[in-house]
Amino acid sequence: MNIDKAKLKLGIWYEDENGNVINQKEDLMCEAPEKARTYHSCFPLQITESIYAVHSKSQKETCKHKRKYWKKNTGLIKGLKGHICTNCGCSQTRKWWQPWGRKWDYGTDTTPLINFHTSIGGGNQDVIMAMVNSGDYTLQEALVVWSTACERCMNVLAYKYLNGADGYEEYSDEWKNCNTECDFCKIKEDAK
After folding, report:
1. Looking at residue 173, what is its pLDDT?
2. What one-character-per-residue DSSP string does 97-110 give?
3. What three-state secondary structure class fits 161?
């Protein structure tokens, strides 16, 4: 198999109706090119953490479903309308002409709260590969450790796995002066 790395599509691009990439300006904040039919986004080193609220049966039974908690349900077929109570996860679905009424369906046990996205790129890849090659972490573990580490811990990891070429030592003056904190360095400070 001969894979041409120059033809790999990474980042953000537009394609026309035949699947051809449309050349565009570097600034992607401008409008889509005129002949564009699809918009593509490919970031293989982007880590997404999704946090959901879990709702109990008793919470669903006692919820008053106040309008401030209603979130429009946009995934319905044409002719239907609906919303979800973000406080308890219950939902209502009606035909477009029907009034809402008081009856709510049980809905889902979870509702989305927030999504976190972390992109790995630039010099980060060297540290991650060094973490994996050392045998201390699998690739999956190294990606998660790097994406959840604070600036202080990232510098310590870079110092450790790049043999002092970048970052700084743990408990050094730079480490103590850094104002960031995460679960990794908080545990070490508590144990110290």
Report:
1. 92
2. TS---S--B---SE
3. helix
